[in-house]
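Bug #2210: token dump truncated for HPr domain-containing protein?
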Amino acid sequence: MSGLGTRAIVEINQAANQFQSSIVIKVGKRYIDVKSILGLSITLFSNETYQLDIHGPDEAEAKQAMNQLFHKHGLPLADLIP
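Reproduced locally. Full output below:
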């Protein structure tokens, strides 16, 4: 894995863990907890469009942060599930 890939995984994971909300990524038929660095490391770079499902008390802030990080690292993100 390239340094950029590792950096993206760590940044996304650390940001997700700052929120109380549940943050789940859907890739194909798989659902991965974004707060799991292992789950991200085996899923994040599968050249697919990612869909996030975020629910909880700080979901608006979490959605904004995840959207910014995915965009920053050039990871295609489908519309967030409302």
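Output looks complete on our side. Helices lie at 3-16, 37-43, 59-72. Marking as cannot-reproduce; reopen if the truncation happens again.
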